[in-house]
Write a structure and sequence with these properties.
The protein has 635 residues and is α+β, with helices and mostly antiparallel strands. It contains 17 helices and 25 strands. It is globular and about 95 Å long.
Length: 635
């Protein structure tokens, strides 16, 4: 075996042990100034991650004391042409990490007195955001403070954030005005991450500075920091386009390059940049606004930006202005993640140590990789100095029923057709036989035990969540950052909704088959009063219901290959108008079934069993229509 092969095999084995198996943490830190060790560390991790997540290209930069001490590209930005990833020149889409430019710009204008963090944002806009919640209740105005902490109370809206063609792009103000989401939480009360809120803040910058947001950032952030490889332009200018990494989808054993992604809500996720340009931004924030001879923020403003401004619980990391707080191995971390369909990035700052890490991946589905790398980085170079001696304990026996149930994220849609997505993003809370909470979502389960009233910690890790009770019952769950989970009403939970739809579908299908069979049987004397009209309405309801289900399933399973999401979020599906029309027809037919049912009972139409059967049929039909109304197909 050659030396290089032995070296690669050793790195691969080390990385497998770090990423693939639980190990005991070693509390002696490795030296970050040993760059050979740093390189070997990342070489080993990325060797595994490229295989594990099918990632053609990865880039990393590590910052310490105002300079990038390590930067390296792994794999390819273009597989076909074997173009290697270069952290200095290769461009990628950092997704939501570009939001930090919005928050930096806002605070620059706060310094200049052009913006006030506590003023009603309607004072800065050329359209009005109603000071009412979606239910009509009056509420407080939204301020920039709320936008910077993701506590403005907007619902999530996915549709329209991406577009398929640059010709579909609208001016920022026009997009924001025509796509106003519902206000579902009172401002300042609930953390709910918002792309719309970020773009709204960027538009406020645009109006206060009297120039396009992208131009403002170019002049006041990119130029002072020397970020010459960064732009919000879509499509890219020719000088930069030649260095743009392709984003890849791995399917059926082969890689396919996706198209350039056009982000309509561009301040929230439309940036294109190099890894080293992001390193420059990190350096400026670690140095409290300074970068060499330049300064993008005053020191006191940078400190304000990095301070905590919202938290769901004193023991749970919350929100700085734009930065998301975390606690890793006892260190306060300011972080942010970024995701488009094809690119995933992670940005991490440890202010007390003047350390920053930036990671970029160019493949769909590689988002989890960034966190595993940063956790491994912390364990190696910044291990926990004093491991916690707190032992999570089971909940009180007999209280299990107060915890179990279904929860949905506050980052959800509630007033539009997208509301059905809540069903696909359910967080399930259970209790195991030992009395520990089991939180399950997306195919993974975490086990938590109580460490203080209203505070839980992972049994096998240090992650914490806080909880809120109402009359002794768990009603809200608070992880770190701009997120909360709220108990789902029983009649909006996934088991109830799916159960009702399945029961209705099967019952109506069997009924329809039975009625068809009866048509071909030997004719019997008709009852004194015919049951033909109720059956006719029932048949029509069944046919429209079956067709709507088929159309809806076809629509939500028609995925865009680059975005990993249904095409309905980027273009109006052909069947959408039909689905909405059929939903309205079903509501009318449901009313007719109810009238037919009442008439049948009053006039004693058909047999008693026919009337009982039709009562069940009508009840299921009403349940279907209620679901359509509740999930906004009729609104």
């Amino acid at each position: 075996m050659t030396k290089s092969v032995r070296h690669s095999a050793a790195l691969f084995l080390i990385a497998v042990l770090i990423l693939g198996f639980p190990v005991f943490k070693v509390y002696a830190a490795a030296a970050l100034d040993n760059l050979e060790d740093v390189e070997a560390f990342f070489d080993g991790l990325f060797a595994v991650q490229q295989w594990q997540y099918h990632v053609p290209g990865i880039s990393v930069a590590v910052i310490q004391d105002g300079q990038a001490i390590f930067a390296k590209g792994y794999g390819y930005s273009d597989l076909e042409n074997k173009t290697p990833v270069d952290p200095y020149t290769t461009l990628h889409r950092p997704g939501s990490n570009g939001k930090l430019l919005v928050w930096t710009a806002v605070l620059q204008l706060v310094e200049q007195g052009k913006l006030d963090l506590d003023r009603d944002i309607n004072d800065y806009l050329d359209f009005s955001i109603p000071n009412k919640l979606h239910n009509g209740k009056e509420t407080e105005p939204i301020t920039l403070h709320h936008l910077l902490t993701h506590t403005a109370g907007f619902e999530e809206v996915i549709t329209g954030v991406f577009v398929l063609d640059p010709e579909e792009m609208q001016p920022l103000g026009a997009y924001l005005q025509s796509n106003l989401p519902g206000r579902v939480f009172a401002p300042g009360t609930t953390a709910a991450y918002s792309n719309y809120g970020t773009s709204l803040a960027a538009y406020i910058v645009e109006r206060a500075a009297n120039q396009p947001f992208s131009t403002y950032v170019e002049e006041h952030i990119f130029q002072p920091l020397g970020m010459t490889r960064s732009t919000f332009q879509q499509p890219l200018p020719p000088a930069l386009a030649k260095d743009m990494s392709k984003g890849y989808i791995y399917q059926n054993g082969k890689y396919t390059a996706g198209d350039f992604e056009y982000v309509q809500s561009y301040p929230a996720g439309g940036l294109t940049c190099s890894t080293m340009d992001m390193a420059k931004l990190i350096i400026a924030h670690l140095q409290l606004g300074a970068y060499g001879e330049e300064r993008i923020l005053k020191e006191e403003t940078a400190l304000l930006m990095q301070g905590q401004h919202f938290a769901n619980h004193p023991e749970i990391p919350g929100m700085a202005y734009g930065f998301i707080e975390n606690s890793v191995n006892g260190y306060r971390v300011l972080e942010h993640g970024g995701d488009t369909g094809l690119f995933h990035t992670g940005l991490y700052l440890i202010p007390q140590e003047q350390i920053g890490v930036y990671l970029s991946y160019n493949a769909l589905g590689s988002a989890p990789a960034r966190w595993y790398v940063f956790q491994a980085f912390m364990d190696r170079y910044f291990p926990e100095e004093t491991p916690s001696q707190v032992v999570p304990r089971p909940i009180t026996p007999g209280t299990e029923g107060n915890y179990v149930g279904y929860f949905h994220s506050t980052r959800s849609n509630f007033t539009m057709l997208e509301a059905w997505i809540r069903l696909a993003q359910t967080l399930t809370v259970g209790v195991d036989e030992d009395g520990y909470l089991l939180l399950s979502a997306g195919g993974t389960t975490a086990r938590y035990g109580e460490i203080a009233p209203g505070l839980f910690q992972e049994v096998d890790d240090s992650g914490k969540i806080a909880v809120k009770y109402q009359d002794g019952r768990l009603v809200e769950i608070y992880p770190s950052g701009p997120a909360s989970f709220v108990r789902t009403a029983w009649n909006e939970s996934l088991p109830f909704v799916s159960g009702l739809l399945i029961c209705a579908f099967i019952f109506m299908l069997i009924t329809l088959i039975g009625w068809i069979v009866q048509l071909f049987k030997k004719k019997r004397p008709a009852p004194r009063r015919s049951f033909g009209l109720p059956k006719t309405v029932g048949v029509l309801f069944s046919l429209f219901f079956f067709t709507l289900i088929i159309l809806f399933i076809g629509t939500v399973t028609d995925f865009h290959p680059d975005l990993g999401a249904p095409k309905m979020f980027v273009q109006t599906p052909p069947a959408l108008g039909t689905i909405i029309t059929f939903a309205k027809v079903l509501s009318v037919l449901s009313g007719l079934m109810l009238i037919s049912l009442i008439s049948a009972w009053v006039k004693h139409k058909g047999t008693i069993w026919q009337r009982i059967h039709y009562t069940i049929f009508t009840g299921l039909g009403a349940g279907v229509v209620w679901l359509l109304w509740n999930f906004n197909f009729l609104k």
